[in-house]
Inverse folding.
């Protein structure tokens, strides 16, 4: 153990910060609270990690999630009880959607825990460990740090988070933060253990045989590939093998959508018909990092048979009915590449996609005209973030320019998520253009985080689609029900409450929108409120909504 | 069982709503989500329970907590996974502080659970019950409703919530909500089981003997009395026995502060010296519903010996070292009253308290002058809500007029809580005057709930104390640290974003404040932003902060 043999000492707080840096983390999100102020002083003294104080903990957890989507990992700091529980929705989302978020919680000292002190922020029962127990269900590993084992535990947690791309929970007691422990000799080793040859051989042979027999092989890309950093390898695989690929919606734009082998989006009945036929009639679908949840599969209408499909994930592989655990998808792909397979059949026809900007008229903005108009401003390399709702289902049919990163949270699907995530994206993505699309109902949950965007001098372009309420709910049930209404805010006037360096606009007609898209400055935060009709929605959302209603046994 | 013998049928959703009404609940807080829309239609059809849609679930849970503080119980509705986890901080607060909040969560149908479907809002692991497991630690009872047992389970949960004054968790599957079950024959029986005579006899005799021997008995009142509706009985006890009483800060103003037997506030070293001497030198302290947590006891400086004190709680009694469980404090007090004890010794001197309004000057507003000035507008019967921070510790020394209800969350102490709670208070308290005091840092966490206050046509008076950040943290650690800063908002301009029927003012000097206090209209929501210096704070807060720093092992 490095920390036993070296003589130089370091505090536990400094050790943790050093390891976070070694993971590439440069920002720490969260909210101060009296149990984390000591560690915060250590953060301030650490020049390489910048503290980013959020307006509240939930927003902080969303920011960390967004940061990890770009940066690979992220860290969040909250305080005992109240702070950590406020963040748990965001952390659970990172668990569901495979993001390595290091969730650090400042907790009371060992002495207060041992004496079961009735501390503020506790349940008053004397059991102070109850919240870390709660986190067992939504994090991959947990530790309540003690000085004697802190270094080892921190290393265990950080590598677990990285290998599984899941959040981990670190309880940092106020007294332990300043305890001295040995400086480690080596930097944190994040290399995942390679697949044992014995685990690779059989699936490799099976897959290679299937490939050789296949007449119409297709690759299906999804979010797992992005999370585990496998996109470059997958692109190499596609280009060397010549197998055409489709993307699931959670995996949209992981590879360029103008790639000659790209077919279009697949999501069961929500697919383009051509793409659906091509995938479902394929005799070998290579699923890469697929997440077969309802919103990603057109409410379970993605019909891929076990027999005709293979799943390749970062840490396991399925061939037919056989699941090969501890077989790393990356190792398998590399080995497959060495075999030199090349698809020589004809290419299926490419799905038509919305790709032309419509000329604006003086009519009120509608979804069918809005999204094509929007396409005109999305630049190559942009980061586009879509709230799950009208925004996601409006953006899905667009074919993005080269290098666009597309962020959506379709499995966890927590409304309001994207505004918090936008902060993390702005602080981690070097690309100049970051665009968020969010509906009014979702916006209201996390609206104050515009304050932190301004504080951190972020310059995103935010579209608030104001259609008087929760449209995704309306299309499931209660189209006209008042419970789906929200209070009408003056959205375009809100950013100025939080800071002066903003530009905003409210648009009702297509020409007004066109004007705003022409005028908006690139040097500050911009918000465009787009007024739309209450029951207007993208066709994909309408289809999905009626399916969700059926799954929920709702009768119209 | 009533539901087996009757023949009339009712849906599970209607049954639940009927039972909530029988508890006296007239409002349901929360956020719609696709797993609760079916139940929401049942809510809309129920004319006696009004749906109050919050901006987000955390704010909803705070509103329910505030409602329960006035009304005795409350109900919250969220959706599976994302919604329920966002509310868990508020529900945990209700657990800590003894509020009967019925936490209803719309969850997927039985079929989706049995098939481990990869639904949106799930962790993607197929285990859909994980969130109800998480709630075990912060609710007194839980049930995942099935049609066959729904009636019985609903009754069990609601009575548990009421008897323990703790939140309970009800998972209502989309399909179960519309299942038909028998109409119950009798209304919900919320009467707690009386103390068995055997449980009452011994503590009664012991306490009566101690009372007769006591030379300087004192009663110490705290929040438990208010939560369990025991204030009228306690007042009767005080007046019949003539024993003087002090209040802890969580129990401030449970009985009128102009009562001739009221001594003042007790909180260890944070007490008035006279009150501290009187309580700590007493040879018999009757503790009524005390919660001995750090903020309530001057950081554990309340020195009450087991020998000299007796604890009387709603459901248990302690005499010396002996804890009598299942002995109801109310039954004991009634039995004691029948014995006819009367204290005949002299009364200790009454603590001096801030009770005069200071004449305003042109100087900048400071804490030492602000709170006395504020006292002038607090009317008899007002509900005053104090965020834990400068607001709480500024208000504690004031002696309130008759009938004031004082709300603070000193054990859970979640910042931002009070703005959400204010909504619940406004909808449950018939009194015309509701006043909230909240700092800028806390305000930022939950600020959007002003929107719901406006939507529900509430007319509170809100003071935002703008002192550039988290002052309660500054006095613990990092007085000048940037992590305790917040983005400077235009607080007084915010309400107008959410609605037009508001009145706001920003004041810097005492005369400006006096003018605002004279002018503010009573017929709409009013917000006064009070600018104060960053490091100015009430003396009680300064003392507490340095103690918290010591408990956390922070060196200055």
């Amino acid at each position: 153990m490095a920390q036993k043999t070296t003589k130089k000492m370091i505090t536990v707080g400094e050790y943790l910060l050093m390891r976070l840096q070694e993971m590439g983390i440069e920002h720490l999100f969260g909210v101060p609270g009296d149990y984390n102020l000591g560690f915060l002083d250590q953060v301030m003294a650490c020049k390489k990690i910048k503290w980013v104080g959020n307006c509240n903990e939930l927003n902080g957890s969303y920011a960390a999630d967004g940061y990890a989507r770009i940066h690979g990992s992220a860290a969040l700091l909250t305080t005992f009880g109240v702070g950590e529980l406020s963040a748990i929705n965001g952390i659970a989302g990172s668990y569901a959607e495979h993001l390595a978020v290091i969730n650090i919680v400042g907790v009371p000292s060992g002495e207060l825990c041992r004496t079961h002190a009735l501390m503020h922020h506790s349940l008053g029962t004397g059991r102070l460990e109850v919240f870390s127990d709660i986190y067992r269900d939504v994090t991959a590993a947990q530790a309540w740090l003690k000085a004697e084992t802190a270094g080892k535990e921190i290393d265990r947690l950080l590598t677990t988070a990285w290998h599984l791309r899941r959040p981990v929970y670190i309880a940092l007691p106020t007294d332990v933060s300043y305890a001295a422990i040995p400086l480690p000799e080596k930097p944190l080793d994040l290399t995942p253990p390679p697949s044992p040859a014995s685990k690779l051989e059989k699936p490799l042979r099976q897959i290679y045989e299937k490939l050789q027999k296949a007449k119409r092989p297709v690759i299906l890309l999804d979010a797992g590939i992005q999370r585990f950093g496998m996109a470059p390898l997958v692109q190499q695989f596609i280009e060397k093998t010549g197998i055409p690929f489709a993307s699931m919606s959670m995996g949209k734009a992981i590879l360029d959508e103008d790639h000659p082998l790209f077919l279009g989006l697949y999501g069961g009945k929500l697919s383009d018909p051509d793409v659906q036929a091509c995938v479902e009639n394929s005799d070998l679908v290579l699923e890469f990092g697929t997440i077969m949840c309802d919103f990603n599969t057109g409410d379970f209408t993605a019909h891929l048979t076990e027999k005709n499909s293979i799943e390749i994930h970062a840490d396991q592989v399925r061939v037919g009915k056989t699941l090969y655990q501890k077989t790393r998808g990356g190792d398998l792909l590399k080995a497959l590449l060495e075999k030199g397979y090349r698809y020589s059949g004809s290419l299926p026809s490419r799905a038509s996609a919305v790709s032309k900007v419509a000329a604006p008229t003086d009519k009120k903005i509608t979804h069918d005209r809005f999204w094509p108009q929007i396409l005109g401003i999305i630049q190559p390399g942009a980061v586009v973030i879509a709230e799950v709702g009208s925004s996601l289902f409006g953006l899905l049919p667009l074919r993005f320019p080269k290098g666009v990163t597309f962020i959506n949270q379709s499995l966890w699907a927590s409304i309001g998520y994207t505004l918090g995530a936008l902060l993390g994206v702005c602080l981690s993505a070097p690309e100049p253009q970051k665009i968020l699309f969010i509906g009014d109902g979702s916006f209201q949950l996390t609206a104050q985080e515009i304050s932190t965007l301004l504080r951190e001098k972020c310059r995103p372009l935010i579209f608030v689609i104001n259609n008087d309420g929760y449209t995704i709910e309306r299309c499931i049930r209660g189209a006209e029900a008042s419970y789906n209404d929200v209070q009408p805010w003056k959205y375009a006037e809100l950013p100025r409450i939080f800071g002066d360096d903003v530009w905003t606009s409210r648009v009702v007609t297509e020409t007004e929108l066109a004007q705003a898209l022409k005028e908006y400055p690139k040097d500050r935060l911009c918000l465009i409120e787009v007024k739309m009709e209450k029951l207007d929605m993208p066709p994909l959302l309408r289809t999905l909504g009626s399916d969700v209603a059926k799954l929920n046994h709702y009768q119209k």
Remarks:
- DSSP finds 23 helices and 21 strands in chain B.
